[in-house]
């Protein structure tokens, strides 16, 4: 998937300690038309905007990083629209709204759930991150980190 990072409701960073990059609707259609809602993992690459970038993210931030994504309606927050929210597992120093992002989805973790408390959702997100890092450590996945052609395939 590929698109420009959109602003979400801002709850990910503030309430859950887990900032997410929201993908635009047209970017998620190829996936939502074929796959069920749920939590998925893979890799993401945030791109530096060309010439005279307003926000220079630095060399490390524009590398390929593991990502964990929530695709669906966020039952805990009862969203009315389906969204794809990508948590890139890397400590970014700056926000990157409006930057291009490429995402390759490699595996499914679990369905989206409703929770009785925010703490329980936070605990499951921490587990999703561990599952992601353990899964991507398998040899068959490392090729997506070494060969980043997928991250350029959709850029016009
Ligand atoms: C790894 C991960 C797992 C998530 N799991 C759930 C879930 O099971 N149920 C749910 O309602 N929302 C889930 N969310 C979505 C969060 O509720 C959502 O990212 C948060 O509301 C922030 O949205 P915002 O950036 O639009 O404010 C998950 C998000 C991530 C990154």
TrEMBL record:
Annotated pathway, please? Answer: Cofactor biosynthesis; FMN biosynthesis; FMN from riboflavin (ATP route): step 1/1
EC number of this enzyme: 2.7.1.26
Q: What class of enzyme is it?
A: transferase
Q: Which GO terms describe its biological process?
A: FMN biosynthetic process; riboflavin biosynthetic process
What Pfam families does this protein map onto? Flavokinase
Q: Which Gene3D superfamilies does the annotation name?
A: Riboflavin kinase-like
Mind listing the UniProt keywords for this protein, alphabetically?
ATP-binding, Flavoprotein, FMN, Kinase, Nucleotide-binding, Transferase
What this chain does, per the entry, is described as: Catalyzes the phosphorylation of riboflavin (vitamin B2) to form flavin mononucleotide (FMN) coenzyme.
Per its record, how is this protein called by name? Riboflavin kinase
Q: Where is the Riboflavin kinase domain?
A: 1-137
**Which domain of life does the UniProt lineage start with?**
Eukaryota
Q: Which GO terms describe its cellular component?
A: mitochondrion
Family (UniProt)? Belongs to the flavokinase family.
Single Gene Ontology MF annotation = ATP binding
